[in-house]
Description:
By secondary structure, this protein is of the alpha/beta class.
Amino acid sequence: MENPATDALPVTTVTATVDSPDAMRELGLALAKRLRPGDLVMLTGELGAGKTTLTRGIGEGLGVRGAVTSPTFVIARVHPPLGDGPALVHVDAYRLGGGLDEMEDLDLDVSLPDSVVVVEWGDGKVEDLADDRLHVIIDRATGDTTDELRVVTLNGIGPRWTQSDLASFAL
């Protein structure tokens, strides 16, 4: 989806390869070290690609309360911090058809300044929440395969991500 207001923002792109659910969780742990309150993370990938596993690692790395599970049927879960870090707001926008209007009912714009907001299936729905965002695209082999290999593309959009060391994720 094109957005003239943000299309001119700088984009930093890094690709990483993970070969197991544990490696995806480890990537989440590493990402959490770079996340801070106000960060919006959009996750894109097919069913079973590892979006929730990545989010579980992010939650563990942020030190939040509660098991991070797919919020498919509740749409959003808030995981408060156990310490001084930010809360994790985990959103599954799969069932939400409307764009930002439907997302506004969740008050994500209120949560965003003090939390890390991770949105699964957010393409075309949440881009207007923040000019600076991290868009994570997870590609996996499809069809009859037991291959756990995933190619993860990290697109850091906006000045916040040009100053972050995303290059260390290139594997």
